[in-house]
Design brief:
The complex is a heterotrimer. By secondary structure, chain B is α/β, with parallel strands linked by helices. Helix content of chain B is 26%, strand content 17%. By secondary structure, chain C is α+β, with helices and mostly antiparallel strands. Chain C has one domain. Helices cover 18% and strands 25% of the residues of chain C. Chain C contains 2 helices and 5 strands, in the order E-E-E-H-E-E-H. Chain C has a 5-stranded antiparallel sheet. The longest helix of chain C is centred in the middle third of the chain and has 10 residues. The chains are: A alpha+beta, B alpha/beta, C alpha+beta. Chains in contact: A-B, A-C. Chains A and B meet through helix 1, helix 2, helix 6 and helix 9 of A and helix 2, helix 3 and helix 5 of B.
Chain lengths: 544, 144, 99
């Protein structure tokens, strides 16, 4: 994975000192909260319901064990012994003190980590495919491109006060595991007819209160123009994105109001101009970054044999592991969704353990997924049973990846000052309901996503089943959505009808799954059945 | 406290800025003031006659002025480029990178804070409107 | 009653205005009548509180203070999904108070 050189390190160290200075000025009264707020946000520091919250960047979701250990140490030393992995592949801490934050950032900088631009109206942490470099179905590892973009977007002088936040995802496989078309810019690394590698740009997707699927703006940007084209996309947005209404300020609204063709025309005009300015890093820089992402030293001829005589292990292998590009290896997913647990939370002890296991069994690498789970990307099959036993003993061996128990949930009203309703208790009750009724396996792949408000941090629009918490005259109420998807077949869920209270929404979800089980045809997932039969049969059952 | 900060050798031009609309009507003015909604590219045919361009930041969170500044510098504008209004001291090095060479903030800067902000970044990651070499150039020289 | 709440500037802890100072216990909150704006302006300026605001609340049967909105009740208690981290860690039913 990427290793800082002295330049990268100097930039992150400078950022720590900048924030130390800004914090001092806030605490001594030189800076008002109004002036300090955007500065702290660009360092990932929010003021949430119970305390400050710090969001630490995990660039494209990739971590090594030393970094993971420091994340655990921060949880112990500065927080209350746990961290929360987020849908942007980051980690956040819920009980942070402002006065400690500069020291936390300094601890992070020692292991090449930071909280730069994890909030605020700027280009955020670049996300990517959690199986990058390991999966058999990718064209090429997308992370070097994400790293190139990370450096370009860090402290970009023109784009630190955009109309609104800006999220970029980069993938390079046929299967989209990063919800690429639901980003401000989604980039797919592709090969053109001449066999050259380049980037397809999808611009103007997003969730939030006005969900939109990003249209394809350009089929092929040559690799030696990637930064220049990105700069053109951002400049048009910075100049013309709406600033009169914060709810209409995301680039999706600009692209929608201009129309994709007109936005594209403006970008092309800016791009032609920017090409004359030589702002593109040389290909040698991309090659330098790529060298950091070379394959680890896989053992040639490692065995593909697995002893599946332990049924619990066999179930975990079936549900939580995926084919690796290298024979004898597998991709192991650690579910952070134990039944009754808090989606995405891990204790300091669990984080330390995952770090150790990555060091021993996965070439020192871990990934954070947008579904709030952890991946050990390169595990030798011969080690898999031992690994699983160690995970299981620490409460990390739950076999429920991509099932109805593997719920994405935002922190909701238990932690978040924007939320209208709690998300986590709903996730816990649903997972418990299906663990109890034994249907989790029967239902197969079923992506359920819960947001506690319209900002959609829990991706409810993109859930096969989505749940949106709303405030109904001071009480929590939950709307049900069906038919969303964030994959290659991205679609937005539709609201079934009137909302429910907390117990009512759990019942409604169960009723929807019964319709699926009664109607499904051979090989159909919940989503496929919904698409075939439509909303009506579900509505009838849910509101009967 | 610093109520005016300037990074030019020449004398401050003794001219007052007119709006972009007024400038385009009355093309003999030597100074113009760009508001966030103005299109800086409308000035490009007239850069030769301009000695001062003020870019107004009514609120520091509205970043359109950064693009306006770069667009003028990219087109070869050599005159004074002044940020006025709610100019944030913490962003000084970013304004400089976009081509601003003078500052007239609503609230005067603390000189120490201003100097710290100007000296903050040992390197830069991107090519912009200033002369600083991006990190990728330091890594690779002029190859590629 | 009208009560005042905010977060401690340095630590971020949720606090309630007691008439003299800021307390982490909502039951210490006092009715400020029409003085909310005056007190908040003074306390913010002195950096004893951050992001403060006034809310409606009621005094309940056993003399406790109950904020009018669920969001402030959760702020007063702590996260309902982590009873161990609330101000009432020994009471597993404490979360029901917020509903």
């Amino acid at each position: 994975m990427y290793k800082y050189d002295s330049y990268d390190q100097a930039m992150v160290d400078a950022r720590v000192e900048e924030f130390r200075d800004q914090t001092r000025r806030r605490l001594d009264g030189t800076l008002s909260e109004e002036k300090f707020r955007p500065l702290r946000l660009q360092n990932g520091l929010y003021l949430q319901l119970h305390a400050y919250m710090l969001r630490v960047a995990v660039p494209y979701g990739t971590l090594n064990s030393a970094q993971m250990h420091v994340l655990a140490d921060i949880a112990d030393k500065y927080d209350r012994g746990y961290g929360h992995f987020t849908t942007r592949q980051n980690i956040q801490y819920n009980w942070i003190k402002l006065e400690d934050t500069p020291d936390i950032l300094a601890d992070l900088a020692k292991v090449e980590m930071h909280a730069i631009q994890t909030s605020g109206n700027c280009i955020r942490n670049i996300s990517s495919d959690q199986f990058a470099g390991a999966t058999a179905d990718e064209l090429i590892d997308p992370r070097p491109y994400a790293e190139l973009l990370r450096q370009w977007s860090s402290f970009h002088p023109e784009f630190l006060t955009l109309p609104r936040k800006f999220k970029i995802a980069v993938i390079a496989s046929q299967t989209d595991r990063a919800a690429m078309k639901l980003h401000d810019i989604g980039i797919r690394i592709v090969k053109n007819a001449e066999g050259e590698i380049g980037a397809a740009f999808y611009v103007g997707g997003g969730m939030g209160r006005t969900p939109m699927i990003a249209p394809l703006i350009r089929e092929f940007v040559p690799l030696d123009q990637l930064i220049t084209y990105s700069e053109a996309c951002l400049r048009v947005y910075n100049r013309y994105g709406r600033r009169d209404n914060k709810y209409k300020a995301r680039i999706k609204i600009l692209v929608h109001e201009l129309g994709a063709d007109e936005y594209k025309r403006q970008v092309e005009e800016e791009f032609a101009h920017l090409l004359t300015l030589n702002i593109e890093p040389p290909i040698a820089e991309l090659e330098r970054i790529k060298a950091h992402f070379a394959d680890p030293a896989f053992e040639a001829g490692a065995s593909d044999a697995l002893d599946l005589s332990d049924p619990d292990f066999a179930l975990w292998v079936e549900r939580n592991t995926l084919p690796h590009k290298q024979a004898g290896y597998t991709i192991a997913n650690i579910s952070l969704k134990p039944v009754g647990g808090i989606p995405g939370d891990a204790s300091a002890g669990q984080i330390h353990l995952m770090a150790e296991l990555a060091k021993t069994y996965s070439f020192d690498e871990l990934r954070v997924t947008h579904a709030q789970n952890i991946v050990l990307p390169h595990v030798r099959k011969a080690d898999l049973y031992t690994l699983w036993q160690k995970l299981d003993a620490a409460g990390l061996g739950t076999a429920n990846l991509d099932t109805i128990e593997d719920i994405i949930a935002c922190p909701g009203l238990d932690y978040c000052s924007l939320a209208n309703a709690r998300s986590i208790p709903v996730a816990q009750k649903i997972a418990q309901r299906f663990a109890d009724n034994g249907q989790t396996g029967t239902l197969g792949e079923l992506k359920l996503k819960i947001s506690g408000c319209i900002n959609a941090c829990g991706h409810h629009h993109a859930g096969h089943i989505g749940i949106l918490g709303v405030d109904k005259k001071g009480t929590e109420n939950y709307q049900l959505l069906l038919g969303g998807s964030e994959g290659d077949d991205t679609s937005l869920g539709k609201i079934t009808g009137p909302g429910f209270d907390e117990d009512g929404i759990v019942d409604a979800v169960e009723k929807a799954t019964k319709v699926y089980l009664a109607q499904k045809q051979e090989g159909e997932r919940f989503l496929d059945t919904y698409r075939r039969i439509g909303m009506d049969p579900f509505k009838e059952a849910i509101y009967a | 406290m610093l109520d005016y900060l300037r990074f030019r050798e020449d004398d401050t031009p003794d001219v007052s800025a007119v709006t972009v609309d007024a400038f385009l009507d009355q093309t003999n003015a030597a100074a113009v003031r760009i508001e966030p909604g103005d299109d800086a590219r409308q000035l490009l045919p007239h850069l030769e006659q301009l000695r001062l361009v003020e870019v107004n930041f009514p609120s520091f969170g509205d970043g359109r002025g950064y693009s306006s500044a770069r667009i003028l510098r990219e087109a070869g504008y050599q005159g004074e480029l002044r940020a006025v209004g709610d100019v944030a001291v913490d962003q000084l090095s970013h304004y400089r990178r976009c081509g601003f060479d003078s500052f007239f903030p609503d609230v005067p800067f603390n000189p120490e804070d201003a100097q710290a902000a100007l000296d903050r970044w040992p390197y830069v990651y991107q090519a912009a409107a200033d002369a600083r070499a991006p990190i990728w150039k330091l890594r690779h020289g002029d190859q590629g | 009653m009208k009560i005042l709440t905010g977060n401690d500037l340095k630590t971020g802890e949720v606090t309630w205005w007691t008439g003299q100072d800021w307390s982490i216990h909502v039951n210490d909150a006092v009715d400020v009548g029409d003085q909310a704006d005056t007190i908040l302006a003074r306390e913010e300026a002195a950096r004893r509180v951050n992001s403060s605001y006034a809310i409606d609340a009621e005094r309940d049967a056993d003399g406790g203070v109950r904020p009018g909105h669920i969001k402030d009740r959760i702020r007063a208690l702590g996260p309902t999904v982590r009873p161990d981290l609330t101000l009432k860690p020994a009471d597993p039913e404490a979360g029901n108070w917020v509903i």
